Amino acid sequence: MIITAKERELGTKASRKLRRQGRVPGVIYGANTENKHIELDKSELLAALRKSRRNDKFEIEIEGKDKHEVIVKEIQWHPVTEEIRHIDFYKLTEGRPVTLFVPVVIKGEAKGVKLGGDLYQPRKKIMIEALPEAIPNEIVVDVTDLNIGDVVHVFDLDIPEGVKVKSTKNFTVVAILGRTKEEEETEEEETEEMEETQE
Question: What is the pLDDT of residue 180?
Fold first, then answer.
């Protein structure tokens, strides 16, 4: 996916002017490469982001001559208007691994949840290292067979070939928790109150 860009001036005033003109200031950076300060058309950028998934690769074409294969590293959003204020791209280099976060996506409905348990996901994303061509959009966890008390740790995940988890600890990614006695008693009381009201 190609996104066109232009070189831009640095400075707060220059960035404000760009935003008023419907442009988005940004930067391209990477290992052993000089930072490229760029501006992009807001409509074109938003259209490209809507069509993409996390960690999709883009080709930034600067003024029709300078091309860079990149991924989105960070987006700064306005807290009120939710408009993009700045975007960071990381330049990919063939043969050089990249360290980045990948979302953890839950698939299926756990047996334990059907029995009254709660699904607990303390980690929504994990840090991985991979070559540009092996970067995954997401890591999927199938929880269908998980019962109450079952836990999935980071080293239990089905990691694609060529991808390395950047962690020294086997932390919890997903767990099926049973309800406490207090929660069960509260639910029973609420059920009894509803039945009495209906009578």
Answer: 56
The SS3 of residue 73 is strand
Series of mean pLDDT values for 10-residue runs along the chain (199 residues): 90 90 93 90 92 90 90 91 91 92 95 93 94 93 95 94 92 88 50 48
Q: For the chain, what are the domain ranges?
A: 2-91, 98-180
Looking at beta carbons, which pairs linking 163-166 to residues 24 or more positions away fall under 8 Å?
A: 163/128, 163/129, 163/130, 163/134, 163/135, 163/136, 164/128, 164/129, 164/130, 165/126, 165/127, 165/128, 166/99, 166/127, 166/128, 166/129
pLDDT the model gives residue 186: 53
Q: Is residue 61 a contact partner of residue 142, using CB atoms and an 8 Å limit? A: no
Name the CATH superfamily for 2-91.
Ribosomal Protein L25; Chain P (2.40.240.10)
Residue pair 71/90 in contact by the 8 Å Cβ criterion: yes
Q: Order of strands across the sheet with 118-120?
A: 118-120, 172-177, 151-153
Q: What is the DSSP letter of 71?
A: E
User: How many alpha carbons fall within 13 Å on the CB side of residue 130?
Assistant: 22
Angle at 35 (CA atoms; ends 30, 41), nearest 5 degrees: 105
CATH of domain 98-180: 2.170.120.20
